[in-house]
UniProtKB/TrEMBL annotation:
Biological pathway: Amine and polyamine biosynthesis; putrescine biosynthesis via L-ornithine pathway; putrescine from L-ornithine: step 1/1
EC annotation from Swiss-Prot or TrEMBL: 4.1.1.17
Originating organism: Lachancea mirantina
Catalysis: reaction(s): L-ornithine + H(+) = putrescine + CO2
Name of the protein in question: Ornithine decarboxylase
Superkingdom to which the source organism belongs: Eukaryota
Cofactor(s) named in the record: pyridoxal 5'-phosphate
Amino acid sequence: MATVPLSRVDQHKPANFVQCPKVSTELLDFRETYWKKKDADETIQNSMDDAQEQIFLGLKQRVQAINQETCEAGDENSFFLCDIGEVHRLWAQWKQRLPRVQPFYAVKSNPNNRILTTLAELGANFDCASKSEIETVLRQGVDPSRIIYANPCKASSFIRFAQKCGVKKSTFDNVEELAKIKKFHPESELLLRIATDDSSAQCRLSTKYGCELERVDVLLAKVKELGLNLVGVSFHVGSGASDLSTFYNAVKDARYVFDRATTKFGLPELRLLDVGGGFQLDCFAESTEILNMGLDEFFPPTCGVDIIAEPGRYFCASSFTLACHVIAKRAVENKESMLYINDGVYGNMNCILFDHQDPNPRVLYHENQFHYRDFGSSSRVAVPECPYKVSIWGPTCDGLDCITKEHYMKFDLEIGDWLYFPNLGAYTSSAATQFNGFEQIVDVIYIESSHA
Ligand SMILES: *Cc1c(COP(=O)(O)O)cnc(C)c1O
């Protein structure tokens, strides 16, 4: 059992449990639900209509261009449609709800070049975790001062690489790392990563990284002893948190470290707070509200501390739609069958295994008809309108390669039909493998729906 960090028990009353409102994904997808909220301004609502029109057109043109009877091997492969306009909408939304917080996009969530260029142009900075991610971002012409090497456990050779490239900002959570940094990159601008209570998160990170508050003194003493440049504190609340109050509590814990560094150890005032990632569009309003509450209370605008974040999925999840081809079918019983599609958990849907995602298969094309956004044509649960029960499988020979064991369709889908999966941009192509000889150079079609 983890012990309760000091500040959570004594300093302040923690914020109450704040639930992420789960919108029904059965009808509208969460992107549409978010942008079409009653209080959203009209321009955004209209831009969403334009986005849907353009996404459909992009999917349709591509599918119509493929004749599965005659095409070259692989021409009917799954493909992504990426809406750069969505990235612009997300950026504007971030600026509106978190005006004090400069985002450092977490490259690992989707290192797509167009996403990186777009974000770099909009003014985002970048969170990298490895040599190759740093190289990718520097290739965009981004200044090394706009990169944070946010991996608390780095190979010595990678630290030397960061030093050579001029990437100074980095995180740490153990004394051993400090010794390496002292040796190879002593002018680093360091952020101490603290653990958070991420017990409500779907993807927990604090079991692997982050220093418990009880151990902070040991790290601060070492920083002092080695004469290193501690500039701030970072944390990550985990992904898919259902209790959003962890944002508030983590900010409060960070304040404790800020104070401790100066009062107990006489270190120079810290000047940077990094509130990490874990932002999701479906509860962005709620999580930013509680984060701002914490920031206003513990780091008011007058306190002179700069605030940054490391959002990953927020900027890429809703920007991508994946389209897949039905390559095989096995009838099981009357109105029940197994469908095999050309993408799966070893490809772009590895997010099922690694990221606890539950992609929603929707009918794109059946019997010469398109069904984009025909929300009645498929369902996660049995409903009278969808009498055909299917399980959906990926193309590899592994039994684990299953997208869903149970889904319901309005039509009796056939080989040659197409499915689409909305909001599939985060932790998908970034972790696809070549297992079983399936190439992973997935085509991406780009559109830019109207924004602003
Ligand atoms: C993965 C990761 C992120 C991004 O997390 P999201 O949930 O995609 O926002 C940010 N910072 C660090 C250190 C990470 O490991």
